[in-house]
């Protein structure tokens, strides 16, 4: 998109939200809604605050994931009003006023001091207040976080318009630049911390601006799914690197994972990476409206079982590997999740706007998306293959012991694991891979 096209798409996005909110408020019996961004809280016994990310429904309108003490007043038939906290302060740089389309469409009003829901609502009846707001701070005429309205708004966020998919595409592009820098740093023998710093430099982000805490795991650390540390020195022998890292653009999150083999990797490891990448692409090729994501997740396990059998890690059929539970020991997480202004975005486990629960299968409790795919959804596709000793331990002494080549498993243990993850938009015709989209737009 050109900048002019992007502005037009942004206006259309805000018009869509205003129309949808008007319909949902009428259906829910409210005259207006007040969204609170939230605010950070100090650590217990300290004056330092925890990290902060704004309420997703507030970010959906404003694209401001880090602004605190802000409110957004939305009433049908009037321009939404954004009360943004901008105190006169010598400790911190004052918050600049919203610019561009946001200023044009959201009527920004500065707040010199934090204010309350009661002060903004005044005598207005039938107002819904959404966000992390104490119940005793909401007047009796208002309703705090009504579930029916929240479920409907979660459903609204599940479907992305052209503006949102463009933001996600841009976030992906900058995240890919970070992944390229991470791979180059690893090839030069960098530590996990140095790889993280190279990623931040390439994506032009501070850690506090990341969509989530990056995962940078060398060797066995790649087998901890949400590995949370950055070793300051590199191991003497480099075998593998897994980087799960993203970027945020106008509030929208990229979530990409890549895995690489080092020169000292076991000869089996690179073919396993190629195999996971190949069946990840097969799964992406199947994405289209009407596809049951639970069934797609189950096909992932069959593809994984076939790869483990073809590479000699297992001495059984793919069907037997799935039935025995071995594939779930090698990959205990779900195939993917919804993506948007939150990394694990809302609406993935409900039937529809009613909010009726749509839980994952008993065998797959970590599956975060249980919906049938429809145009406008953006999902991650992230199959994995890990050597997690305590998950595999029961099979060493069980009836499947002879069906596993434990020598190969043990050779791979200090490689940790493999995950390959792309972000994909479901379209009316099928899908568009936002992670592999051509980089032909200006930021």
UniProtKB/TrEMBL annotation:
PROSITE patterns named among the record's database cross-references: PROLINE_PEPTIDASE
Keyword Metal-binding: yes
Catalysed reaction, written as an equation: Xaa-L-Pro dipeptide + H2O = an L-alpha-amino acid + L-proline
Gene3D superfamilies assigned to the protein according to its UniProt record, in alphabetical order: Creatinase/methionine aminopeptidase superfamily, Creatinase/prolidase N-terminal domain
InterPro entries, per database record: Creatin/AminoP/Spt16_N, Creatinase/aminopeptidase-like, PepQ_N, Pept_M24, Peptidase_M24B_aminopep-P_CS, X-Pro_dipept-like, X_Pro_dipept
First-tier enzyme category under EC: hydrolase
Binding site residues for Mn(2+) 2: 244, 255, 421
Gene Ontology molecular-function annotations: proline dipeptidase activity
Keyword annotations from UniProtKB, A to Z: Dipeptidase, Hydrolase, Manganese, Metal-binding, Metalloprotease, Protease
Boundaries of every Xaa-Pro dipeptidase N-terminal domain copy: 9-154
Cofactor annotation remark: Binds 2 manganese ions per subunit.
All residue ranges annotated as the Peptidase M24 domain in the record: 167-428
Cofactor: Mn(2+)
Superkingdom of origin organism: Bacteria
Protein EC: 3.4.13.9
UniProt feature coiled coil, ranges: none
Entry binding sites for Mn(2+) 1: 255, 337, 382, 421
Function recorded in the entry: Splits dipeptides with a prolyl residue in the C-terminal position.
Similarity annotation: Belongs to the peptidase M24B family. Bacterial-type prolidase subfamily.
Protein name: Xaa-Pro dipeptidase
Native source species: Salinicola endophyticus
Organism ancestry: Bacteria, Pseudomonadati, Pseudomonadota, Gammaproteobacteria, Oceanospirillales
């Amino acid at each position: 998109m050109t900048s002019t096209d992007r502005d037009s798409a942004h206006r259309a996005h805000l018009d869509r939200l205003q129309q949808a909110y008007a319909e949902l408020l009428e259906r829910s019996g409210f005259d207006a809604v007040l969204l609170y961004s939230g605010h950070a809280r100090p650590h217990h016994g300290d004056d330092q605050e925890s990290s902060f990310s704004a309420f997703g429904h507030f970010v959906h309108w404003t694209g401001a994931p880090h602004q605190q003490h802000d409110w957004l007043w939305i009433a049908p038939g009037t321009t939404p009003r954004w009360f943004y906290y901008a105190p006169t302060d010598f400790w911190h740089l004052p918050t600049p006023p919203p610019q561009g389309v946001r200023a044009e469409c959201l009527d920004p009003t500065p707040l010199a001091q934090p204010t309350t829901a009661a002060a903004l609502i005044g005598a207005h009846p039938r107002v819904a207040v959404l966000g992390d707001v104490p119940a005793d701070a909401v007047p009796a005429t208002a309703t705090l976080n009504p579930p029916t309205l929240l479920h409907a708004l979660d459903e609204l966020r599940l479907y992305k318009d052209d503006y949102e998919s463009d933001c996600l595409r841009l976030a992906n592009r900058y995240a890919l630049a970070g992944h390229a820098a991470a791979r180059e740093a690893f090839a030069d023998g960098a530590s996990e911390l140095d790889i993280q710093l190279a990623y931040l430099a390439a994506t032009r982000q501070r850690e506090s601006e990341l969509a989530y805490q990056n995962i940078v795991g060398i060797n066995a650390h790649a087998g901890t799914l949400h590995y949370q540390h950055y070793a300051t020195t590199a191991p003497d022998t480099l075998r593998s690197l897994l980087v799960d890292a993203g970027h945020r653009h106008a509030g929208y999150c990229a979530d990409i994972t890549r895995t690489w083999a080092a020169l000292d990797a076991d000869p089996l490891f690179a073919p396993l990476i190629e195999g996971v990448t190949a069946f990840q692409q097969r799964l992406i090729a199947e994405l289209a409206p009407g596809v049951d994501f639970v069934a797609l997740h189950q096909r992932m396990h069959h593809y994984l079982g076939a790869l483990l059998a073809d590479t000699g890690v297992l001495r059984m059929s793919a069907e037997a590997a799935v039935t025995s539970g071995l594939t779930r020991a090698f990959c205990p997480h779900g195939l993917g999740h919804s993506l948007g202004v939150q990394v694990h975005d809302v609406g993935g486990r409900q039937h529809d706007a009613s909010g009726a629960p749509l839980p994952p299968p008993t065998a797959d409790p970590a599956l975060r998306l249980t919906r049938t795919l429809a145009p406008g959804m953006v999902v991650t596709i992230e199959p994995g293959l890990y050597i997690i000793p305590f998950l595999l331990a029961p099979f060493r002494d069980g009836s499947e012991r002879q069906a596993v080549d434990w020598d190969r498993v043990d050779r791979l243990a200090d490689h940790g694991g493999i995950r390959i993850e792309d972000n994909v938009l479901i379209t009316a015709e099928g899908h568009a891979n936002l992670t592999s989209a051509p980089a032909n737009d200006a930021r």
